[in-house]
Design goal:
It is a single chain. By secondary structure, the chain is mostly helical. The protein has a single domain (3-156), classed as dinb family like domain (Four Helix Bundle (Hemerythrin (Met), subunit A), Up-down Bundle), CATH 1.20.120. The protein contains 5 helices and 2 strands. The protein has helices at residues 10-27, 32-35, 47-66, 93-111, 130-156; strands at 119-121, 127-129. It has a two-stranded antiparallel ribbon. Helix 1 runs antiparallel to helix 3 (47-66) and helix 1 packs parallel to helix 5. The protein is globular, with a radius of gyration of 16 Å. It starts with 9 loop residues before the first helix and ends in a 5-residue tail after the last helix.
């Protein structure tokens, strides 16, 4: 089915889930210290920071913006400018991955049963659709999964999907 003719959120969820799984598989097999290590100086993102960031951004768009849920931050908020990238601690890796998975499920639930053309007004006063949210999330995952490949390669020579 073509994206343009797809009537509901299930159409975008499949591709989004592929990107979520790509990020997780890129991180697989590393210990907490490796996940929290900065490897591409002078940039300071880490694999664990990317996982945290994706959970935070998905929550913002799917749950807060689209569904209008009054939920706090997963890790940090937009005020810090990095939405989860900062404050990474190796000791929290297992907890952070669990929060990522839980947030992905909550975001899927927030969009379930809604049409892609359903809209909301953003915090900036712009009317946006659920389709737009999926497109932006897929685009951001594609970009950040490329970053994850570089971080993983610098950690142990392996790259993701």
């Amino acid at each position: 089915m073509r994206w343009a003719s797809c009537p509901n959120a299930g159409c975008g969820r499949g591709r989004l889930n592929q990107h979520r799984e790509t990020l997780l598989s890129t991180c697989a097999g590393l210990d907490p210290a490796q996940l929290a290590r900065t490897t591409v100086e002078p940039s300071d993102p880490t694999l664990l920071g990317l996982v945290r960031h994706r959970a935070e951004v998905e929550r913002w768009w799917f749950r807060r913006s689209f569904a209008g849920e009054a939920v706090g931050n997963v890790f940090t908020g937009p005020a810090d400018g990095n939405e989860g990238l900062d404050g990474v601690r190796a000791a929290d890796a297992e907890r952070d991955f669990a929060r990522f998975r839980a947030e992905a499920g909550a975001c899927d639930a927030a969009a379930a049963g809604h049409g892609l053309d359903e809209s909301f007004v953003s915090s900036g006063g712009v009317r946006l659709s659920l389709r737009w949210v999926y497109l932006v999330m897929i685009q951001e995952y594609a970009r950040h999964n490329g970053h994850a490949d570089l971080l993983r390669e610098r950690t142990d020579g392996r790259t993701g999907d």
